[in-house]
Amino acid sequence: MIRIAIVDDHNIFAEGLSFMFAGVEDMQVVAKCHDGKSFLELMETTEIDVVLLDISLPDIDGMQISETLGQKHPNCKVVTLTMHDEPSVVRKMTKKGAKAYLLKNTSKDELLAAIRTVNEGKAYYSPDIMRLMLEDDGKTKKVQRNSLRPRLTNREQEVLHHIGEGLTTQQIADKLFVTIKAVEFHRSSLLTKFGVQNTAALIKQAIEYELLL
Amino acid sequence: MNFYFNKCLLFNPFFRGIILLCLLHHALCAQSPPKSIADSINYTPEEIDVFAQDYKKQNNLRGLAWCEEAEARYNFRVFGPGRYPVEHYTKALGYFETLNDQKNIGRVNKLIGDNYDADPIYRKLAINYYHKAMLAHEKAGNVSGAIDAELALLKAQIDNPFDKEEDKLGNEVDAQKRQKEAESMYQRIDKIAQRCKKIEGHELLARAYVLQAQQLMTMQRSMEALQVIDLSLELAKGLNAGDIAADASVLKGLILKNNKQARQALEYLEEGLRLTRSYKKRPRLYNISLPIAECYQSLGQYEAATRYYKEAYRSRHLSANRDALSSARYLDDERKLDDTERDRTELQKNKRRQNTFLLVVGLLALALALLAFSLFKGRKRDKTINKQQKIIDQQRIRELEYENTRNLVDAQEKERHRTARELHDGLGAMLSRIKHFVEANSNKIPASNTEEFIDPLKQYIDEACSETRVVSNNLQPYALTKFGFTVALEDLATKSQRAQPGIDFNFQHYGEEPVLSPESSSMLYRVVQELLNNAIKHSKATQVDVQVFYDPDKIDISVEDNGQGFDPNTLKPGNGLGNIRYRVEYLRGQVTWDSQPGHGATVMITVPLTKQEN
Q: Is B433 in CB contact (< 8 Å) with chain A?
């Protein structure tokens, strides 16, 4: 028998959800909590195998609860059940130890499958969430200065090229049909991207990275 | 004259104004300058400036007024109704007031009112201007102009959503009060209708009937309402007046809907929707799509109902965005108007001063010239001191107004936040519950019905869930408050990528994200959101780069695409660029556009950081 707790501040949802477990033989809803604090208190006295945990809660958010559980009650596995489908939230939640991530409109079959899977100590991600996590990888990056060749946009490449040719800001502006302000903006971006203070150092770096030939 | 009137009234109020102006122009030809600016031509600001220079030299106030109006029309074409045209109309009004030209004062007041009326938040101002227009036309003895303004005034009063909400205390009393109001409004409109008949103003009469039918509906006299609205529809059709026909059709639909004649109601509502789309500037489609959806629902045509519900929410969301922005603009505009008001009095003063000066020259001999000269000089010194004082005052006022706007924006962000959370958690949870209920009970329904009934039902619920998520996330991204600007933009890039697989989105950020006030981070987020939307919708790009550079004293943001580009000089209204500029200016930052047709586009934004820490 898998002992289940539901943590969700919306009473109607929690009620509806527990109703769904009525005919399921290997599971039992032991408790329903409406905030994080009462759930963590419950954990001190009651043994729970799987918690269905929402993220937006009135007091402590689901990410923090998940982290606390990982430290204090590692036997209780977390199935995230939420409305949030933002990649950052999914990522953070899995990082904090959630073994499964489901959206609230998930099907009954999927929810039951997820509970059984995490109960065996494995992780469960629906295809949707899996896709989301994969897409998120490598799509955006925080770029460390001086660590790798920076990625330049088309416009920045053009400006860099003209700087390399020794043109002045005014000349570059005329050549590219843009305002001086725009050229200055691109130049400042280039300096930041290359982690340098002035144009001479910029050209030197650019040649080292083989961005200027 | 009447013939001209009817003909020109077929068009929308602005065209109406222009044509009226043509007429007046002919009438006043004797006074108008030899090289005059024509009303039917779409001048560019440069061309207008050439005229204005000339008129200034001749000290021709009427000519200058015309120039301001041309400028206002230009701004209207570019930015749509709102503060920009109003600024110029107000200046034109100043000239006409100096000339004491009541007919034109009335006309321009009406135009300003129309500009304000396009936005519910300004409606109170609109009512003010319509009132002034009415008084001026009455002074000038222009009956149809006065009726025109009065009808606009009443319509604005009836539609003003803000007054109504204040009245919502206790339903019983409220209903009675509204009945009474409707009754007296009905009487007032009836009198106007009589006057319309007297001068055979059919178009005015059609408009009066629409308002009258609306009152009858409020008074729950639906049979009479239907009779009146049919008269209006007939007139509008005869005159080929699309915008009146739009209002009348919608109203007839609503009356029929109230009578539970959903099928007939739909016919008129859909016709009204079509007309509104093609004849109205800045239509508020929410008020039409919603009843259509409700009608379909009551007829059991759920798919069509869903379609219109979606549309209603989309347009509501759009106008909510617009409203939030314009209410923030409201105070700013008030300040601007104050400025123009001051300019106007300055101008009048100057003119008076000039007249006095001529008189002095005529009367006094050359011997007194020296004295006059020293007097003049003294006045000039006074003027400089005055000017300095004025600048200091203005600065102080501006700071105060700015503070006000800030509080307003803050309150709006909070409200958005709350609404987003309610949608997300409340409505979302309820929808999920419905789905779980259906699943838990689906075994009670014969298996043969599952495919036909249960499966589509589940799918609809899922669609409703994801729509709720989208709407709430647009209102206030959870990641923005929880993890900050950078993470929210990461999410935005990932989501855009998922929605648009054909475009390669890249997001890079440099430096450490500073602590941003919630207000500035959501302003900046909305700016990037808008820029991405533009790139997706208009640019035909295959690659979009979003970059953020955090510096200790500023944030640089750039959005670059490799699409078809545009000519920054010929921007069309409605592409959200005005919104972007407004938000960035509000954060005291700068926007730079860099684009050429065929060579992609880069939008660069720099926002100083000192401001946010305050």
A: yes
Same-domain pairing of A97 and A183: no
Residues of A in contact with B494 (CB under 8 A): 87, 132, 135-136, 139-140
> Helices in B200-280 by DSSP H: which ranges?
202-218, 222-239, 242-258, 262-279
Query: Is residue B360 pLDDT above 80, yes or no?
Result: no
**Per-residue pLDDT reduced to its tens digit, B303-313:** 788 788 777 77
By C-alpha distance, the chain B residue nearest A18 is B436
CATH at A186: 1.10.10.10
Contact B600 A154 (CB under 8 A): yes
How high is the ipTM of this complex?
A: 0.81
- A98 and A202 housed in the same domain: no
CA–CA gap between residue B410 and residue B139 (Å, rounded): 45
3-class DSSP state of B201:
coil
Q: Chain B interface, mutation test: which of A17, A140, A141, A197, most B Cβ atoms within 10 Å?
A: A140
Task: Please state which CATH class domain B479-613 belongs to.
Answer: alpha beta
Distance CA A118, CA B243 (A): 62
State which residue of chain A sits closest to B513, comparing Cα positions.
Answer: A142
Same-domain status, A13 and A70? yes
- Indicate the residue among A136, A167, A193 that finishes a domain: A136
Helical (H) or strand (E) element with B436: helix B428-441
Determine which of A139, A156, A172 to mutate to test the interface with B (most B C-beta atoms within 10 Å). Answer: A139
**Phi/psi of residue B110, nearest 5 degrees:** -65, -45
Q: What is the pLDDT of residues B182-239, one digit of tens each?
A: 888 888 888 888 888 888 888 888 888 888 888 888 888 888 888 888 888 888 888 8
The structure tokens listed for B335 are 């300040």
**A10 vs B482: CB contact, 8 Å cut-off?**
no
For residue B607, the model assigns a pLDDT of: 92
Instruction: Report how many domains make up chain A.
Output: 2
The Cβ of residue A146 has, within 10 Å, a number of other Cβ atoms equal to: 10
Does B507 contact A61 at a Cβ distance shorter than 8 Å? Answer: no
CATH of domain B14-143+151-162: 1.25.40
Q: CA dist A185 to B443, B549, B566, B591, B602, Å?
A: 64, 11, 20, 11, 11
- B/e letters for A81-116, b = 16+ CB within 10 Å, e = fewer, are bbbbbbbbbbbbbbebbbbbbbbbbbebeebbbbbe
Sign of CA dihedral B99, B103, B106, B111: negative
pLDDT bucket at A64, cuts 50 / 70 / 90 = very high
Nearest Cβ partner for A16 among B437, B482, B486 = B437
Are A22 and B556 in contact (CB < 8 Å)? no
Question: pLDDT, tens digit, for every residue of B314-343?
Answer: 777 666 666 555 555 554 555 555 555 556
Q: Which residues form the domain of A72?
A: 2-136
Residue B84: φ, ψ to 5°: -65, -50
Cα–Cα nearest to B602, from A178, A163, A137 = A178
- Domain holding A99: CATH number? 3.40.50.2300
pLDDT score recorded for residue B318:
67
pLDDT in tens, B135-190: 888 888 888 888 888 888 888 888 765 444 444 444 445 677 778 888 888 888 88
* Tokens describing residue B605: 């934004």
Best mutation target, B604, B605, B606, B607, to test chain A (most A CBs within 10 A): B604
Given pLDDT bands bounded at 50, 70 and 90, which one contains residue B602? very high
Residue A113 lies in a domain: yes
Decide if B428 and A85 are in contact by the 8 Å CB cutoff. no
Amino acid at B549: F
Cα dihedral across residues B24, B27, B29, B35: positive or negative: positive
Rg of chain A's alpha carbons, rounded to an integer?
26
Q: Which fold has domain B179-274?
A: 1.25.40
